[in-house]
Amino acid sequence: DEETRYVPVICVISRCKHKDIEAAWEALKYAKKPRIYIFICTSEIHMKYKLKKTKEEVIEMAKSSIRFAKKLGFTDIQFGCEDGGRSEKDFLCKIMGEAIKEGVKTVTLADTVGINIPQEFGEMVTYLKANTPGIDDVVVSLHCHNDLGLATANTIAGVRAGARQVEVTVNGIGERSGNASLEEIVMALKCRGAYVMDGVYTTIDTSHIMAASRMVQEYTGLHVQPHKPIVGNNCFLHESGIHQDGMLKYGSTYEIFSPEDIGVERSESSGIVLGKLSGRHAVKVRLRKLGYEITSDEKLRDIFSRFRELTKQKKRITDADLNALMVLYGDEISSKISEGTVLDEPISQISSVV
Ligand SMILES: CC(=O)SCCNC(=O)CCNC(=O)[C@H](O)C(C)(C)COP(=O)(O)OP(=O)(O)OC[C@H]1O[C@@H](n2cnc3c(N)ncnc32)[C@H](O)[C@@H]1OP(=O)(O)O
Ligand SMILES: CSCCC(=O)C(=O)O
């Protein structure tokens, strides 16, 4: 980056095969900060059925590959244990220790099949850190898949146990159910790092998160569900009356970070979506924004019961619906138009990315 002088590490993943390592070197030899990420599987099931190798052979493949990478010119080498989550802990310590002896700077524990649960995964990291020779001199990295929906939780558990690199993807895209999502981890660190993770933080500018997410959705055609944490369309919408009331009274009652934190402008309706779950308070406030001041409780009760009737016919009640409802109720709408009141807005959703 010309402005900040930041130089990213460009990393190529490689099997323990000379032709892969050579291809990685060809691809990276002119990079300013090249890294190779050599991996091999370490679980019984993968070693026996996929690789058809013994433990000793696997260790030897790892060592000779690291040596070969160094010979080609790599100085920044990462070593990863594929299916680490189903591997014997002591074997992980042994192979990682051997890799560290060969000069790798980063070691990865991968829950390749997304089978671990957070406490278990955190304990594995603790065990590796306590029992792997030389591990204090390298960075422990994590690579979690989401088959049980636990990729983010496992990654956070690993960070709490001392890992300091995370392998994540924008929107959590990845093989099968995907990987730990970048935006979830980054925002978890931002919101809780100082309190429950020994002050761990990232230097990522979170205001680019939504734009990055949208870009990846567009390019990959993989669109996130509305309730996807952090970047889903519903993340800053409030549909239930009790929540709406709280939000109208104080913005942080039901939001742990603001849309602006991830680069989104708050919608004109402040995320309040009117529908059958709304209560009196939200309806009254919206009407006030439209220019209708409801002063008596009786009038509000009356209007609210008409509003409720309308929600039986329509899921979302728009400003146009509210205006129509007020016309039917007897108010004069033409004066509102001349006053320039906003009459309608699109169905509430995150309005724009800044
Ligand atoms: C951990 C991960 O899976 S990260 C994701 C890796 N990326 C991809 O798989 C996507 C891109 N993949 C490809 O282009 C191809 O699969 C290639 C180029 C990597 C390999 O292609 P091919 O040589 O045709 O092999 P194929 O993919 O069918 O099978 C994989 C072979 O690699 C072996 N292998 C798998 N992991 C390793 C490893 N870490 N080290 C050494 N060999 C390995 C398998 O045992 C199998 O070997 P075999 O042919 O002796 O049975
Ligand atoms: C540590 S192996 C490489 C990471 C990976 O792609 C996986 O295990 O799923």
Element order: H for helix, E for strand: EHEHHEHEHEHEHHHEHHHHE
The average pLDDT value, as a whole number, equals 93
**How many extended strands?**
8
Sheet with most strands: strand arrangement: 1-2-3-4-5-6
- Biggest beta sheet summary: 6 strands, parallel
Task: State which percent range the strand residues make up.
Answer: 5-15%
Bound molecule types: acetyl coenzyme *A, 4-(methylsulfanyl)-2-oxobutanoic acid
What is the radius of gyration computed over CA atoms, rounded to a whole number of angstroms? 27 Å
Structural class, by secondary structure, is alpha/beta
**What percentage of residues falls in helices of 4 or more residues?**
40-55%
Q: Which spans have pLDDT < 50 for at least 5 consecutive residues?
A: 332-354
Q: Write down the overall geometry.
A: elongated
Count every helix, treating DSSP H or I runs of 4 or more residues as helices: 13
Distance between the termini: 21 Å
Name a few traits of the molecule:
354 residues; alpha/beta; six-stranded parallel sheet; two-stranded antiparallel sheet; 13 helices; disordered C terminus; binds acetyl coenzyme *A; binds 4-(methylsulfanyl)-2-oxobutanoic acid
Quick synopsis:
The protein is of the alpha/beta class. 43% of the residues lie in helices and 11% in strands. The protein contains 13 helices and 8 strands.
